């Protein structure tokens, strides 16, 4: 069997690790990735040390079913060198996590070669996949015009491209994509007033990195919601017993489906067993949209060691159980959840305490401010004008820190996706993303149609890679 993997980031690393755990073989695996930063993707390429992994090690393992895999790779010395005292967990620069992904992928390829597999990495972008004339499998065409026959194709092309909501592309002083932040920070004058579009994790990265580099000018987070990410709490070692994939599957069998009320019932039971009140927990979550951002940030930093499990359970299971549960929910319940997109993203993708503390210091010093209710941003002579509910704001530089929506097609993958749709090998899901139209195509990562309404974390990517590996083994042995 000839397996073609399009994309060489975290999703490909997880897929290869799962493939190497199988016993069938031999065969051929070819990975197509034009980037010089193999296995790292956009998020984990070389960058500033201030750009940190935004989660503790237990949920950053790319090996599905082995939450200790990443921690074991880190080892005690590296873990101690990068310990976040508030969280009590190591938080490494994302480039170092990229080394972990690279080591995992290379070890998987070596294991496959040891079982007689042929492995290759082709440093070229795939621009089309078509049905081959004389070959039963599809044919991949790279940008250099070469064709590569395959039996199975797996798309691991990563997330979408940041959207330019205000039409500022090309304006002097506008940064459309902040990563790598080493490049972005180097082009921003030290005294400039910087408006950062968004208030999520990317915006936090921008602010913290500017401050770490000694930026002296004002920084303003400008967004529609003004909602900062929640703050990670110190892990307690609690393992959910009610909010699990097995309990969700049992609900589906017993009730003929899964509803939002049913999932809430599982969380209610989880909290009740720990002596916590479900109504109080949900009321606190829903209040996040109306609470003053700096006050809430200070309160959440104070609660890093709070022993209550509610937020911890929700944050973990959003990425481990959530993708499975999402596919079972009826569309009206999905719409209800989509209506809480900003809140859900804030809870499911919190910021690490060291970054939260840095933000609080900047807010308290007056260097950092929040401007919510932004309606328009215009390029004007000498800079930009931000128009919002609180009045107009002048800025010298605007950095776009709005994350692409889940299931968005990366700009570089648009020709490839167009070819798959034109050839009938895939269809677009009504809610976004790509759905394979046959057994020879697989999609791992945010591009998978029908996936959750929040961006996949590493646990979801690892689970999807393991699922695709099982499908590939079945095709190989069947």
Question: What can you see in these coordinates?
Answer:
The chain has helices spanning 10-20, 69-81, 94-114, 181-186, 201-212, 245-255, 260-273, 278-286, 293-302, 310-320, 322-328, 331-338, 341-348, 353-365, 414-422, 458-477; strands spanning 2-6, 28-32, 83-84, 89-90, 118-122, 126-131, 138-142, 147-149, 152-155, 174-175, 194-197, 219-222, 368-371, 374-380, 383-388, 391-395, 397-400, 426-428, 434-436, 441-443. It folds into 3 domains: 2-161 and 405-477, FAD/NAD(P)-binding domain (3-Layer(bba) Sandwich), CATH 3.50.50.60; 174-230 and 352-400, FAD/NAD(P)-binding domain, CATH 3.50.50; 245-348, no CATH class. It is built from 16 helices and 20 strands. Helix 5 (201-212) links the parallel strand 11 (194-197) and strand 12. The protein has 478 residues and is of the alpha/beta class. The model has no long low-confidence stretch (mean pLDDT 92). Strands 5-2-1-9-20 form a 5-stranded parallel beta sheet. A 5-stranded parallel beta sheet has the order 10-17-11-12-13. The protein has a 3-stranded antiparallel beta sheet with strand order 6-7-8.
